[in-house]
Amino acid sequence: MRADGTQPNDRCNVNEADVFQPWFRERGIEDVEAFVPDMAGTARGKVLPAPKFGTGPMKLPEAVFSQTVSGEYIANKNNVEDRDMLLVPDASTLRPVPWAQDPAASVFLDCYRRDGSSVDISPRHVLRKVLAKYAEKGWTPVAAPEVEFYLISPHSDPNVDVEPPEGRLGWTDGARHPYSIDQMNDFDPFINTVYKYCEEQGIHVDALSQEAGPAQFEINFLHGNPIDLADQVFLFKRTIREAAIEHEMHATFLAKPMAEDAGSALHIHQSVVDREGNNIFSNPDGTPSKLFYGFLGGLQTYIPGAMLIFAPYVNSYKRFLNPWDSPVNLAWAIDNRTVGLRVPDSGPDARRIENRLAGSDVNPYLALAATLACGYLGMIEELEPTEAIEGSAYGTEFGLHRHILSAIEAFGKSAPMRSMLGDDFVSVYCALKDAEYMEFQEIISPWEREILMFNV
């Protein structure tokens, strides 16, 4: 901690009740973006003049969690009054907004009802609910996400296929160049801006690499507390979009933005430590522990019921159409990217499990909550995983839901997910996804007009 009471990453000192105004004055902050992450993982909130922040109660309607991705509201039987939530700023999340024209800061808000209880359908609360289960056992999950995204040329016609942006010489390269340094150099100015903005916000990103698709990239996050990492992924998505606009491009986290190219994933590395900081996935002699196998068994058993979290939109399931780009199985193996559950080759202290099934379109709070919930149940129930596979898992049995309707039905009927994530949350989330699917169904696609119109 610095002498002025701030953390090295320029976030405020969480132990000072009056931290906000001194922090604002020291940095000349004029505006404050105060928000909650909604079900889609986007920011809902208010912008306040800095001197007004904290001078009175802040409220938002609880219905922000009953909004579809297109902004339509669904009926929520638990909130027929459309009541307000009381919003409490999380001081540990105060950060500058580096792309703002006037000096600005952002802060996450936690949501409460008038009786002091948490709003249980808030994604941030859902993750906290799962982490509390671990805490009761003296366990602390550790997470490290990897997020993929595409840069695309800007356009305003949704009927036109997206294309990669132009490189340094005005050339649009549609070929695949996984791990190409030269292709990354085409976007050096954008990449430099991203790292600068991340550093200013205390977003702890590590390596960036070119992925399989044209102008597709992956960024790795340093491991840490799941709530903090979910906050960082949430902010990272905003950062990428803003940096892309600054360089006259767009960025998308859509799971499958280009029909012929690879989809974008959000891989989640996860492990668990005890009160002494020991990795419970390893025995004292360095061998895999019973809890490690239980966590794997839980993922294999319960991910089908939670798939709606990892693939939340109609488009999400198109990512699974090409198993060479995205695993479609629940197999596990060591150092094998063809499986849905990969165990990286590492020492005992770093033993972890990588869930490779989620798309980059997920809500990071819900994706972390769901994968940790599945693993927790496996450890508590002492489940056994299948045998680790040898060789390629491509071509093995499709172990996931093939479309969103079956995922909605499975999630709604999953008693284990209701017990871990909350009964009200599961009901509202399923209703949201039903409404989004019905909205999608009302659209007549170009394929229907071209192929079916005069042939049926």
Q: What would you say about this model in short?
A:
This protein is of the alpha+beta class and 456 residues long.
Describe this structure in words.
By secondary structure, the protein is an alpha+beta fold. It has 2 domains: 20-119, Roll (Ubiquitin-like (UB roll)), CATH 3.10.20; 130-450, Creatine Kinase, Chain A, domain 2 (2-Layer Sandwich), CATH 3.30.590.10. Helices cover 31% and strands 18% of the residues. It contains 11 helices and 14 strands. The chain has helices at residues 20-27, 123-136, 181-185, 188-201, 226-246, 290-310, 364-380, 404-412, 415-421, 423-441, 446-452, and strands spanning 31-37, 43-49, 58-61, 84-89, 95-96, 104-112, 140-152, 205-210, 216-221, 250-252, 266-273, 332-334, 341-343, 353-355. The strands form 2 sheets. Strands 7, 8, 9, 10, 11, 12, 13 and 14 form an 8-stranded mixed β-sheet that branches. Strands 1, 2, 3, 4, 5 and 6 form a 6-stranded mixed β-sheet that branches. It is globular.
